[in-house]
Amino acid sequence: MKKLVTLTFITVLTALLTSCNTDATQNSGMSLIQKSDPDPIILDEKSEDKQKLVSSIKKDVAKFDELYDVAVVKGEEEILVAYKVKHMQRFHMVKIEGEINKMLEKKYPKENFIVSSDYKIFLEAVELNDKMKNPDFSEKDAKKKLEEIIELKKELT
Amino acid sequence: MGNKKPESKEVEQYKQFEKNFETKRPVFKNCLKAFLVGGFICMIGQAITYFYIYFFSFTEQTAGNPTVATMVFISMLLTGFGVYDRLGQFAGAGSAVPVTGFGNAVISAAIEHRTEGFVLGVGGNLFKLAGSVVLFGVFSAFVVALIKTILIKLGAI
Fold first, then answer.
1. Which of A49, A81, B49, B129 could form a disulfide with B105 if both were Cys (CB 3.0 to 4.6 A apart)?
2. Within a domain: A36
3. Which site among B46, B49, B54, B83 would you substitute to test the A interface, given the most A Cβ atoms closer than 10 Å to its Cβ?
4. pTM for the full model?
């Protein structure tokens, strides 16, 4: 009986702790499991050229058979490309990242890319996309968020 | 050295006789149990990794550390409650090989030697089994790093 009470206590505590999340919204909630296919985001001056650029980057990266979801965020200086690798291809993740980097640098030599296959980076990109739909979320906030994502990508420990 | 003495007839006869009464180890069944329980523990670990990625700012690369700490902590609690011992009896290597086995080894030694006092009992015996895990873990990491360094210097990687 005592064991049962302890186990119930632990279960309830875990449930309470996990339900304390307020940040995740709509799409980003499921993007870890499902394909969410977010639209490319531009946090720079918006022009038709840039719109074309991010769309073509997304298209080029999505051409890789090993991937199934691509998110592109264009900041002022860098372009963040996050993608999810198909489960059975995850053994070749380093190779795939190298190939994508090579392709992007060859095709868009003027741009500065940050490429990541990390779930977290993808999740944050989708969350940024969701937040951008909210009119209260300013461009300044969005740029700050992108900076945070890039910092997170560089973190190693 | 190494030359075994030829066994006498009686010894051979006894060995044959003994074989008839020996209970056979159910190797396949044990392997299956270890596989299933070990796999289940790893599945919980994966769920905890996703929990840290999803609700905290950990990336796939950095989520490993808190996950290991949590798994060890849970196995320490379970050892204290007496649940992990039963799991160990049932699953054998399946419960000892994952990192949870490390927590179990530490806490069970602490419980066993509690009566001998805190310094010579708990303190002296805490790493009785876990000490060899740490020692050979560090040593094998050193050997692997050495091989990698040599290969990189030679230009093979």
1. B129
2. yes
3. B54
4. 0.78
